[in-house]
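Researcher: Predict the fold of RGAP1 protein.
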Amino acid sequence: VIRPEPCGVCGSRIRFGKAAIKCPQCQLLLHPKCQEQCPSPCVPRPRHHAWPREGVVADFAPTTPPLVPALVVQCVTEVETRGLMETGLYRVPGTEQLVREWKQKLLRAGGTLPALSSVADIHVVCGVLKDFLRGLKEPLVTFSLHPAFLQAADIPDDAACSTALRHVVSKLPCANRDTMAFLMLHLLRVSHSPSCKMDVFNLSRVFGPTLVGHSSANPTPLTILEDAPRQCKVVARLLSLPPDFWRGFLGTERENLVPM
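Model: Structure tokens for RGAP1 protein follow.
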């Protein structure tokens, strides 16, 4: 190993200069001691099918609707399977090194993702999802629509605010819109879990900077300071929209969101 990488079976890093086993078909890398636990048979995966290291959400989305990246689907599914009883979901940080290693492992895997059930700490899975969304070249709220989202959220009348937000959400690129809808439904389920103690206000504080971001890739320090409360308001307002509005974007194709 020249560049340290995580083992595809146990997740621990294989360090520089150590021996490793690599499959020529699916590119799976693992410790020699982990060979017996290696999934079999492997799924051949040409290198060009791997995801880019960075990009906009459409670069990671499938080719058929709903256009929600498999990484997002798998993280959300894992969180909902065993995380809805955890206090501080998405607020409590996972181990930074594990978050980084699992994010890279999932990005390298492309469409055929390793199971997240082997990640003992569900906060690591939450961290992977947040880090993936935070690392996009453009937030789900695109740079061009950012002012429109802020203006819609500022409307004091609830009915008018809801109408304006629905309109601006519909103008998002399809992958951004579908992923937003999928995440909003997930965050609503988290907010409804008493054990998580993460209401809409808490979730909006966590996800405001990640989902809404700023109107450019390089905001000034003053812009960052001014945008912070408005980002939270946008997410809180989006979470106040009825679930059926979000389900409408996922439609009858929701079964396609079951992770591989």
